[in-house]
Each structure stands twice: as C-alpha cells, then as structure tokens.
Design goal:
Layout (H helix, E strand, L loop, with lengths): L3 H4 L5 H13 L5 H8 L5 H13 L3 E6 L2 E6 L3 H14 L4 H10 L3 H11 L5
Antiparallel strand pairs: 1-2
C-alpha cells in the first residue's frame, strides 16, 4: 500500500487545477465551490490553504462572502503565463543572455510570430 507521500501531487499541480476551476467558473468561488469543481477527495482545508497561497502570490483576488472569502483569478491563463515568464526573467541579472537563449530555443513558427509582434504587425 503506498504511503501518503506517494499520493501527493507534483508541485504546482494542485494550484494549476484550482486555477482551472476558477477560470472555468467565470464567477468568484468559495473554497467549497472550488472543492466541488475539482471533483476530488481533497479536504476543504487543503483547498483553502491553496487559495490562500495563490492570493499571497497575487494570482487570485478575494472578497468577503459570509464568514469566508470568494476567490477570482486576477488574469486569464495566457496572462498568468506571461507574468511567470516576466518573473523568471527578473530573477537573472543578465537579461540579454536570457532573452537571447530564449529566442534561440523557439520553434521556427514561434520565432516568426514573435518577430511580427515586435514589429507591431499583430497584437
């Protein structure tokens, strides 16, 4: 029988699942609503802790609802990905090298799309 450690999700997977539920709902959800949306056996306290951490990271906002909070995503999925990319870029002091290596590793189609965006041809 596997122990509790083997049952754990990989880092970030639960946060991603919670964000998926919030994005799909399109309305603020309480921890109980998120728990229902996950359709899992997670304890409400686990969901609440995850939402609190996402709030502390600035990824979700919250508003009082009864004795607790209802949570909403601050950005859509592409916006959150862009935010994470900026965060990673800000961690390194050699931005030029990081950007150069990022562009060098782009697929040809992505490189062309980035070029058009930088030239102002697309938004």
């Amino acid at each position: 029988m596997p122990d509790a450690k083997d049952e754990r999700r990989p880092a970030g997977e639960l946060e991603a699942a919670v964000m998926g539920v919030l994005w799909a709902a399109g309305i603020p959800l309480t921890p109980g609503g998120v728990q229902s949306g996950l359709g899992s056996e997670l304890a409400r306290t686990t969901v609440t802790t995850t939402l609190t951490r996402l709030h502390e990271k600035g990824v979700v906002s919250r508003a009082r609802q009864g004795r607790g909070y209802a949570y909403s995503p601050v950005q859509d999925a592409p916006g959150l990905t862009a935010r994470r990319m900026h965060s990673e870029l800000d961690r390194d002091t050699d931005r030029e090298t990081v950007l150069a290596r990022f562009v060098a590793q782009l697929a040809p189609g992505d490189e062309e799309h980035l070029r058009r965006l930088l030239e102002g041809d697309e938004r």
